[in-house]
Write a structure and sequence with these properties.
The chain has 248 residues and is an alpha/beta fold. It folds into 2 domains: 1-31 and 78-119 and 171-248, TPP-binding domain (Rossmann fold); 32-75 and 121-164, 2-Layer Sandwich (SIR2/SIRT2 'Small Domain'). It contains 11 helices and 9 strands. Helix 1 (3-13) packs across helix 11 and helix 6 (80-90) packs parallel to helix 11 (237-245). The model has no long low-confidence stretch (mean pLDDT 93). It is an enzyme of class 2 (transferase).
Length: 248
């Protein structure tokens, strides 16, 4: 039995599947991996959350970077990997997708928000750091690129930031708790495109394995958790998952 058949077999015999997605699934849609050589974090010093809050200059630089790199994100479309997961969600076989990605491609592939657990937030909209009110990016982009105006909340005048988790910002408690709960109750945990180096998120595969779930890792490069996995496939995610699930 080859690896695809083994993956298909694992999916077919599972009752509660959880996916854990990282940058590797989105690079196949043309979104660069920030941590790779030549990625954003090798070109720019990251802006820490405390600095964003304390300095208007840092907030300005954060929004400048956001809109300078946004073009790629806006054009990106879900790929075969995203569509395969959407099909498993639709079939009721997959209970949730835990993601480290901030690009909203799982939502675009048709997965309901309620099934997506975003550990690092979402860069496709902004929110007020005081009252939590959601702000769409269109008016913010127009005002910032037009006159350099920094966004303030229309409800409470609070500071507005993309709805992502910055360096030094606390992980979202509700999402982490949901991810923990889903991980502990699944019988198949599939890692897709994560190097499994960013903690605490990278701890979830080991929790799943410890609770008795089967662990599958699909990633182009080796990870530190390959030895823990029941099945490791070093290949592109889209072709691998579409063959295993039966989607184009």
């Amino acid at each position: 039995m080859d690896d695809i058949e083994r993956l298909k077999d694992a999916i077919g015999s599972a009752r509660r599947i959880v996916a854990f997605t990282g940058a590797g699934i989105s690079t196949e849609s043309g979104i660069p991996d920030f941590r790779s050589p030549g990625g954003i974090w090798t070109k720019y010093q990251p802006i820490y959350f405390d600095d964003f809050m304390a300095s208007e200059e840092m907030r300005r630089e954060s929004w400048r970077r956001k809109f300078a790199t946004d073009e790629t994100m806006i054009k990106a479309e879900p790929n075969a990997g995203h569509r395969a997961l959407a099909k498993l969600i639709e079939q009721g076989r997959m209970t949730s997708i835990i993601t480290q990605n901030i690009d909203g491609l799982h939502q675009l592939s048709g997965v309901p928000d309620s099934k997506i657990i975003e550990l690092h937030g979402n860069t496709t909209y902004a929110s007020c750091l005081d009252c939590g009110h959601r702000h769409e990016l269109g008016p913010i982009r127009k005002a910032f690129l037009g006159s350099g105006k920094l966004p303030l909340c229309e409800k409470c005048d609070g500071i507005v930031k993309t709805a992502t988790i910055s360096f030094g910002q606390a992980m979202p408690e509700i999402q982490m708790a949901r991810a923990q709960d889903e991980t502990m109750n699944c019988d198949l945990f599939i890692v897709l495109g994560s190097s499994l180096v960013v903690y605490p998120a990278a701890g979830f595969p080991r929790i799943a394995k410890r609770k008795g779930a089967k662990l599958v890792i699909v990633n182009r490069e080796a990870t530190d958790q390959d030895d823990d996995a029941d099945l490791v496939i070093h290949a592109e995610i889209g072709p691998t998952m579409s063959k295993a699930v039966g989607v184009n």
